[in-house]
Amino acid sequence: MKLKQTYKELPSIFYADVALNKVASPHVVLWNEALANELQLPAFWREQADYFAGNDMPEGAAQIAQAYAGHQFGHFTMLGDGRALLIGEVETERGLVDVQLKGAGRTPFSRGGDGRAALGPMLREFIISEAMHALGIPTTRSLAVTLTGELVQRESLLEGAVLTRTASSHLRVGTFQYARQLADYEHVKVLADYAIMRHDADLAEQRDKYVQFLQRVIERQAKLLAQWQCIGFVHGVMNTDNMTISGETIDYGPCAFLDTYDLGAVFSSIDRQGRYAFGNQPKMAGWNLARLAESILPLFADNEEQATEAAQAALNDFPVLFNVYWLEGMREKLGLFTAREDDRELVQQLLLAMQQHKADYTETFRALAEGDYPDNELFESDAFFDWEMKWQQRLLQEDSSYAEAQQLMQRANPIVIPRNERVNEAIRAAEAGDFAPVEELLHVLSTPYTLEEQYAHYAKGPEDDRPFVTYCGT
Ligand SMILES: Nc1ncnc2c1ncn2[C@@H]1O[C@H](COP(=O)(O)OP(=O)(O)OP(=O)(O)O)[C@@H](O)[C@H]1O
Fold first, then answer.
1. Which of 174, 223, 321, 390 has its CA 20 to 30 A from that of 168?
2. Residues 365 and 429 in one domain
3. CA 240 to CA 446: how far, in whole Å?
4. What is the pLDDT of residues 455-465, one digit of tens each?
């Protein structure tokens, strides 16, 4: 197999060539065999720690850092891969897949950074991205974590590691912002054509392909955000450089899954204003998409007024689409196959009761799916009693049986999610040299809708009311 290099065919402002930053003694500590098989990687790659640490390159590989910009917590900055190396694309049945080494050393975009990553955050990205995939949520994937044999300086000295990440592309909203900020109409157009080739090839010959492209990105993001909200995922850093064109979740920094249901949940210690709080995520996604629309606006029409109108119409669809997908997801979580007018109210009433009684989000829905309620404040409350009567009446309006509704709920409500405490425990063990807990956690998270009995403790939320530990070390 030879890696492809379509991204390198873009004008050179979109990337920088990077020399290899060799490390002392690479050692692969986590390997995703299922993903390697899916990508049909040659079997001998498994043994090539040098490939995954950036010491050596497979056939056809390049070494480039991608250029992009981004609004970070609302402030625009020119960025680029400061610690990642795109080595090429694997051709698969589902299209090209980027292979990137995250933490592979300095690049021309590193600014003051060392270009490196510590083991803990790379394990965290591996675990959570793979859990998201198993939950059915579009995401970048993780192929390997490779120790470098070198230390990195953070608050303390930590073991260095490289994550091998795959993605259906690493094009971001920020890539378009970069093109618009730095270059002319032609460069924005070349980038948009490239993105269409990667993600929306069927649009290539359409007359209004750029407006349709924007609509597609909006549609994908609306679906993604609905999935995040339904599963209780808080991304934490929804900067425009962390929003993909593909609709895959990217960058697992200070992210977390909800324990107790709380619209205000924030897990990032740098997000003091709650800009990216759980309940704000759909609004912030809409804001980011407006930045994409602005960046490609000149491609829509010669006439500025017409172009703005087309962009506005597409952007106005985002909240509408989000709401449709969200309600669809929520209906499934409640075992409803059909749509009725009052469904939104029914869902909101439950969520309000969950927020008031500090109920665990995942446990609550799974308890509904099992029909087996734990003794806790929510399930003993009048609010729940009242809601449950309405829910039961609503279920009776369905043509399907209760058993069918239950099956639907069991497919829509996971038993296990990567709870922060469990993830951190496993990472701490790995940092001390024991990778068995990470492997076990990955095993459990790979089938989140079923759980073998011996792993029952993974299903439990934290027993006390402590807020999550925030995790921001990169
Ligand atoms: N240690 C580092 N050295 C150099 N650049 C860094 C370092 N850490 C982060 N950066 C750069 O700072 C920017 C913002 O960082 P952020 O943590 O959002 O991204 P990341 O996790 O490195 O990458 P990605 O968004 O691709 O997952 C990125 O351009 C990133 O490349």
1. 321
2. no
3. 29
4. 999 998 776 44
Ligand 1 mean position, distance from CA 17 (Å): 17
Mutate which of 15, 64, 78, 83 for ligand 1? The one with the most ligand atoms within 8 Å of its CB, which is: 83
pLDDT of residue 468: 43
Instruction: Say if residue 136 is exposed, middle or buried (CB neighbours under 10 Å; 0-12, 13-18, 19+).
Output: middle
The annotation status of 271 as a binding-site residue, yes or no, is: no
Residue 420's H or E segment, with its range, is helix 420-431
Would the annotation count 274 as a binding residue?
no
The answer to the question of residue 2 being in a domain is no
Q: Report how far ligand 1's centroid is from the alpha carbon of 240 (Å).
A: 13
- Quote the pLDDT of residue 461: 76
* CA of 412 relative to ligand 1 center, distance in Å: 33
What pLDDT, on the 0 to 100 scale, is given for residue 465?
44
Please give the number of the atom of ligand 1 that sits closest to the Cα of 242. 25
Are 254 and 350 part of one and the same domain?
Answer: yes
Asked if 120 and 213 sit in the same domain, the reply is no
Contact (Cβ atoms closer than 8 angstroms) between residue 44 and residue 216 = no
For residues 378 and 359, the answer to whether their CB atoms sit within 8 Å is yes
Q: Concatenated DSSP letters for 272-289? A: TT-TT-GGGHHHHHHHHH
Same structural domain for residues 106 and 127? Answer: yes
pTM over 0.90: yes
Number of domains making up the chain: 3
Query: Which protein residues are within 6 Å of ligand 1, measured from CB?
Result: 79-84, 110, 113-116, 237, 242, 250-251, 253, 474
d(CA 175, CA 181): 10
**What ipTM score was computed for the predicted complex, to two decimals?**
0.98
Q: Are residues 193 and 319 in the same domain?
A: yes
Q: What's residue 463's pLDDT?
A: 65
Residues 289 and 391 reside in one and the same domain: yes
| Statement to judge: residues 384 and 250 lie in one domain | yes
Q: Is residue 471 assigned to a domain?
A: no
Annotated ligand binding at 88? The verdict is no
Domain presence at residue 137: yes
Q: What's the residue count for the chain?
A: 474
- Strand locations in 12-130 (E): 15-17, 27-31, 64-66, 69-72, 75-78, 84-92, 95-102
Whether residues 119 and 261 share a domain: the answer is no
Q: Is 172 annotated as a binding residue?
A: yes
| Residues known to be catalytic | 241
Identify whether 467 is part of a domain: no
Query: For residue 469, what pLDDT is reported?
Result: 40
Distance (Å) from CA 152 to ligand 1 centroid: 15
The list of the chain residues with pLDDT below 50 reads: 464-474
